[in-house]
Amino acid sequence: MKRLSMLLVVVALAGAAHAEDGIPKPGSELTPTQRRALQLLVESDPQLRKQVEAGITAEQIGRERAVMQEEQNQFFASQKRFVLIAYGVMWALVVGFVVLMFLRQRKQEAEIAGLEARLKALSKS
Amino acid sequence: MAESKPKSPIVFLIAAVLAAAGFVALPLMAFRAPIPQTMFFSQKIFYYHVPAAWTMFIAVIVCGVASALYLRKRDARWDEAAQASAMIAVLFGAIVMTTGPIWAKAHWSKYWIWEARLVSALLVWMMAIAYVLVRRYGGPGMERLSAAIGIFAAVNVPLVYWSTTIWRTQHPPNSVVPTLDNRMRPALYTSALLFVILFVLIYAVRRRLLRAEARLHALHIGVEDQED
Fold first, then answer.
1. Residue of B49, B56, B85, B99 to mutate, testing the A interface (most A Cβ within 10 Å of its Cβ)
2. Which of B16, B98, B219 sits opposite A116 (nearest CB)?
3. If phi over 0 gives left and psi between -120 and 50 gives alpha, with beta otherwise, what is residue B5?
4. What is the pTM of this model?
5. Residue B146 forms part of a structural domain
């Protein structure tokens, strides 16, 4: 995580120093201006120098970014799934309840009609 | 006995149309509303979890008030009103108790935590279930016992509401709704209105069912008397 933060700082600073060149795209080669900006930054910061010497490339930065993006996408998808499940459960409960009431009412109506007919027949006989 | 022709199919039709309209409109409105900075996408559950809780509280209070009036006046209509709303409290409580833990899992990574708001709401829901079970299986003469349960449940509603201010809870406080972003209000209030309308419609159908049940009971007795 610490390493990743450092990487992002390097890229962001380079981008800020030379806005006209923008932040390098993942996997792309640095423009001469970007390269010069990075060089200046690295020279002015011993810690950055160590990191760069350890072999950080734009490709690595791109890969780290892609991983982060993928993690974010997965998180959003899981959140969306929870919302949809909750919404589905809510309507399933309401519809289930209404259908049960409807069926019960029909059953009651049939039973009432049957009993009324029976009562009528009994009172006649 | 002159029985009016049942009008329930119309009520069912209105309920179906409303439910269908709500089913489409609610997510559209909710998804267009912004998400607070400290929340994730799962915050959208708020738009049906909170109105369901409000409706559950309304149903429990109606049940409690009707139960108290039944105990005082011994009028069967109040008992009928209490019974009808108790069942609705169980339904909306079930919605609260399922959407809540789903939201909790998404936001807190846990389905359930034993804190004041959750436990007190669970207790009120269980009281509503107890009311329904007592009425269903308690046999004759259970009206007064169930009325007492109904009153007890209603008395607990303020406790659920203020639980977040009385105790330290992880559940969002009551101040969330009054301080809500104006762009979030239409979705919340539309959802609340839809739930209240559903409550009224289901209540009307439940009352009709209970009346039919009473008529069925009377008819059974009539037939038995005639046969004897």
1. B99
2. B219
3. beta
4. 0.76
5. yes
Q: B52 in a domain, yes or no?
A: yes
Is B219 at the interface with chain A, CB within 8 A? yes
Contact predicate B51/B191, CB 8 Å: yes
- The range of the structural domain enclosing residue B67 comes to 45-169
Is B70 contained in some domain? yes
* Cα B122 to Cα B56: distance, rounded to the nearest angstrom: 11
Number of domains chain B contains = 1
How far, CA to CA in Å, does B42 sit from each of B37, B84, B85, B178?
Answer: 12, 33, 30, 20
Which pLDDT tens digit goes with each residue over B95-140? 999 999 999 998 888 999 999 999 999 999 999 999 999 999 988 8
Of B12, B102, B226, which has the smallest distance from its Cβ to A119's Cβ? B226
Residue B33 lies in a domain: no
